[in-house]
Amino acid sequence: MGKDGPGAGAEGSTRAVKPPPDRLYGRSRGHKLRPRQEVLLDVTLERLRFRTEDAGAPAWLPELWIEIGFGGGEHALAQATTHPNAGLIACEVFENGICSLLARLVPEGGEATAPLPANLKLWPDDGRVLLRLLPDTCVDRLFLLFPDPWPKMRHAKRRFVHPDLVPEVARVLKPGATWRVASDDPTYQAWVTEVMGAQTAFSVAEPAVQRPEGWPATRYEAKALQAGRRPMYWVFTRR
Ligand SMILES: C[S@@+](CC[C@H](N)C(=O)[O-])C[C@H]1O[C@@H](n2cnc3c(N)ncnc32)[C@H](O)[C@@H]1O
Questions:
Q1: pLDDT digits (tens, 9 = 90+) for 150-185
Q2: pTM above 0.85, yes or no
Q3: Active-site residues: which are they?
Q4: Which residues have CB under 6 Å of ligand 1?
Q5: CB burial class (10 A; 0-12, 13-18, 19+) of residue 216?
Q6: Which domains are assigned to the chain?
């Protein structure tokens, strides 16, 4: 990532920020894919893909959960394993991350045939696009764990927590549904506090500074802790 990438330099204020574009920044492809990764994307991903035509009636289990930016998939897989009654749609744009999750699910040679979790589907695309396709009040839980911080103010429009996207998140969540957000970046932490403090669709509790029970750890979080950064963990409840 270059010096202007999501991990760079500082500051934030929600005032005078342009609306988020329907455009992705950051990487969607890293190093060249290995043959096994190509098969995972061509074959296994197709078996798990959440299809656009299902977006009008998206729930296939008693609860519908969504994770935005699952990274290597540690959290998504742990949640899917411990909550069989929740159908989780996990979104990620970075191909190597998608391969990482798929590689944990199927052994080599089992890409087309190995059993897959019945409560997990993948959206290998921008999570904002998925949200816009969904009907009102259909989601029980939304996870946004360690989103790219885009710490420079001129990149604030790229942040997922954004005054223009909060109404869209509120629209798809059921009353009483929860939105979990975690961040280790001080600029993003201040930004979340400001953005969520200025809206009325969610009730806002004080963030925890230790990972709460029932929040499986992620790879990014482990790196942040190792580097001495201090994550905050919020739960926003849809009114
Ligand atoms: C800093 S990483 C954190 C990954 C993971 N949640 C973790 O904690 O290890 C943020 C991830 O969000 C993904 N991402 C960013 N914007 C996204 C979007 N609009 N839709 C889906 N994924 C997105 C990036 O590709 C990246 O893998």
A1: 999 999 999 999 999 999 999 999 999 999 999 999
A2: yes
A3: 148
A4: 26, 68-71, 91-94, 97, 126-128, 145-148, 218-221
A5: middle
A6: 25-57+70-125 (no CATH), 136-239 (3.40.50.150)
